[in-house]
Design goal:
This protein is an alpha/beta fold. It has 2 domains: 4-254, Type I PLP-dependent aspartate aminotransferase-like (Major domain) (Aspartate Aminotransferase, domain 2, 3-Layer(aba) Sandwich), CATH 3.40.640.10; 257-391, Aspartate Aminotransferase, domain 1, CATH 3.90.1150. The chain contains 15 helices and 12 strands. The chain has helices at residues 4-12, 15-21, 62-74, 86-94, 111-120, 136-142, 165-174, 187-190, 225-238, 244-254, 257-276, 295-301, 318-325, 357-362, 379-391, and strands spanning 79-83, 102-106, 127-131, 147-153, 178-182, 200-204, 218-222, 281-285, 308-313, 332-333, 343-345, 370-373. Helix 3 (62-74) packs parallel to helix 10 (244-254) and helix 4 (86-94) crosses helix 5. The longest helix is centred in the last third of the chain and has 20 residues, at 257-276. 49% of the residues are buried.
Length: 393
């Protein structure tokens, strides 16, 4: 929790200052400017119950505390709760619910979230509804007396649809429902959902927050103390906590978040325009296009349009997509996103394979759909890389 003095300091900071300074203080024992890695499992007590605020490392760790404070500041929240992965963070949010509760989410979301709701928590009596959330009348049609949570993902993964966070949160408040926004694709540099009324904001910090493809991590941020206390309890009781080395790596990555994400946005704009003009490309999904259905909403709730671009081929087959994906050099064929390096992937067989094919096709996730995480390399090299890949089939 932030003190009154630190609240004033953090509120006054601009984003580029927050990423470097919010929650970060030189180590008092040595003056080290970087937060130390407190690689310990337990802490010595002066007498039973008398300690310096730390008892056992599953419950508290100074490196994790610094990161939790920093993340809360970046999302304009008050409480940050860190987990061992983005899915562990998602799991913790689901544990706020009970058997018989229902969730409404988009029909175009990360496959792992879909799998967790349906295959894991479905066994314990939770029920998920997945609808075209860009039209909130679809959401309202699914809300009933058992609905407890709206799970919002925007931009969506992998079709890059845009959901109106403010309108969705207003609808949830009208019905007394919690809202959680998965902000992984945007990062807090591009949008801060708590400012639009969200109760919780979630990250796979593995992605843009870490930014270097070298750590797996998750986080939830809120302004609501009651929710924070429940999540801290779940964090400690269930034990899916990140190690101090992982927290250090996320803190390190965050310091360049604004620089990396802006460069990715700039590069993605160039890549999207290139793809749109390519004769072998059928459709390009990118909210920065003025004719994108969610463009105006994205302009209103985001600071730029992100580093993600998806597209389909005119030869709409897995074979055609495989030829492109197997012949790039700078775009590495791999799962994940948000690192400094560019990645290329095939959602139907990789990140979204857990979603049944008919459901994938219903949202436009055809066999040739390719998703790009555009990195911070030189844009000319990235364009040339794709041009070579297209030339090989």
């Amino acid at each position: 929790m932030r003190t009154h003095e630190s609240q004033i300091t953090i509120i006054d900071m601009k984003f580029a200052t927050k990423v470097i300074h919010a929650g970060i203080e030189p180590d008092p024992s040595s003056g080290a400017i970087m937060t130390p890695i407190f690689q310990t499992s337990t802490y010595v007590q002066k007498s039973p119950g008398e300690h310096n605020g730390y008892e056992y490392a599953r419950t508290q760790n100074p490196t994790r505390d610094a990161l939790q404070t920093n993340l809360a500041a970046l999302e304009n929240g008050d409480y940050g709760i860190c987990f061992s992965s983005g899915m562990a963070a998602t799991d913790a949010v689901m544990k706020l619910l009970k058997s018989g509760d229902e969730i409404v989410s988009t029909n175009d979301l990360y496959g792992g979230t879909y799998r967790l709701i349906n295959k894991v928590f479905g066994q314990f009596g939770l029920k998920g509804h997945f609808v075209a959330m860009t039209d909130l009348s679809n959401v309202e049609a699914k809300i009933n007396a058992n609905t407890r949570l709206l799970w919002i993902e925007t931009p969506t993964n992998p079709m890059l649809n845009i959901i109106d966070i403010q309108a969705a949160c207003d609808l949830a408040k009208k019905h007394g429902i919690l809202t959680c926004v998965d902000n992984t694709f945007a990062s807090p540099y591009l949008q801060t959902p708590l400012d639009f009324g969200a109760d919780l904001v979630l990250h796979s910090a593995t992605k843009y927050l870490g930014g270097h493809s070298d750590v797996v991590h998750g986080a939830v941020v809120t302004r609501n103390k009651e929710l924070a206390d429940k999540l801290y309890f779940i964090q400690n009781a269930a034990g899916a906590v990140p190690g101090p080395q992982d927290c250090f790596l996320i803190l390190r990555g965050i310091k360049t978040l604004h620089l990396r994400v802006q460069r990715s946005c700039d590069n993605a704009r160039i890549i999207a325009e290139y793809l749109r003009q390519h004769p072998k490309v059928n459709r390009v999904f990118y909210p920065g296009f003025e004719d994108h259905p969610g463009h105006e909403i994205a302009k209103r709730q985001m600071r730029d349009f992100g580093g993600m671009v998806s597209f389909t081929l005119k030869e709409d087959t897995l074979e055609a997509g495989s030829k492109v994906m197997s012949n790039t050099h700078f775009f590495s064929l791999a799962e994940s996103l948000g690192g400094v390096e560019s990645l290329i992937g095939h959602p139907p067989t990789m990140t979204h394979a857990s979603i049944p094919r008919p459901e994938r096709l219903a949202v436009g996730m055809t066999d040739s759909l390719i998703r790009l995480s555009v990195g911070v390399e030189d844009a000319d090299d990235l364009v040339a890389d794709l041009e070579k890949a297209f030339g090989d089939f």
